[in-house]
Amino acid sequence: MTDIHLKGTARTDNKLWSNDEFEAAIQAVGAERYHDKHPFHKLLHGGKLKKSQVAAWALNRYCYQSAVPRKDAALVSRTFDRELRREWMHRVLEHDGYENDDGGIERWLILTDALGLDRDYVQSMRGALPATRFAVEAYVTFVREQPLTIAVASSLTELFAPKIHKERISGMLEGYDFIDDRVMAYFKQRLVQAPRDADFALKYIKEHAATRAEQEACVDAVRFKCNVLWVQLDALHHAYVNGNVPPGAWRPEDLGP
Q1: Which of 113, 91, 111 is nearest to 101 (CA)?
Q2: Which residues pair with 101 in a beta bridge?
Q3: The pTM is what?
Q4: Which domains does the chain possess?
Q5: Angle 103-123-228 (CA atoms, 0-180°, nearest 5)?
Q6: Partners of 98 in the beta sheet?
Q7: pLDDT by residue (tens digit) across 3-57?
Q8: pLDDT tens figures, 124-148
Q9: Using CB atoms within 10 A as the burial measure, which of 80, 155, 254, 256 is most buried?
Q10: CA 112 → CA 66, 70, 182, 217, distances in Å?
């Protein structure tokens, strides 16, 4: 795989950014293009979607949730840095579960259960939109193939996640009578997990991005990850708001009355 995703940042000088400048450049990406600004999310958080449309979102988002521990395991397999392996491994367990914690994927399935979706069907991912599958696998491939520091940087959309989780919890609880505290458990847990994970990843890239070009590549990696999240919502809006459901994808009538 080429570094095509890392092109496009205008390099006007080669001076290394300070840590504050580096972080500000990453934060600017979130301010511009994090998916809380997408029209589909505004509908979701505003209580404006039908139950079937929320179900379509949850079913497709499962593809992403199930890919997270795979991309994290791919990163762990590449590093000889014991500290990084130990720190990153807990991300796999956060999603797959360990000891008395069922994990984030199980919490996501509680949400899809509550929305009336068959659990085996959700896990099969047969009904997911083609664009969802392509975007998710592009992210896994990116983390597996890009230089390690840049792969770590792609996780830094977690810097922006707590805000969207808070909005989602309050907006969906208020806007939908089929949503309750139990099915929001995934997002409540991420309010704790995401800041810890983001703090480590940010510290890591500040310490390991040794050139201005590498710093800018890290910023481009965050931009790429935002695009991965954004395009999934583009596909959902096109299919389930505009009514252009592609062949083989889950259809609202499958949910029943």
Answers
A1: 91
A2: 98
A3: 0.90
A4: 16-242 (1.20.910.10)
A5: 80
A6: 101
A7: 434 444 444 568 999 999 999 999 999 999 999 999 999 999 999 999 999 999 9
A8: 999 999 999 999 999 999 999 999 9
A9: 155
A10: 13, 21, 12, 36
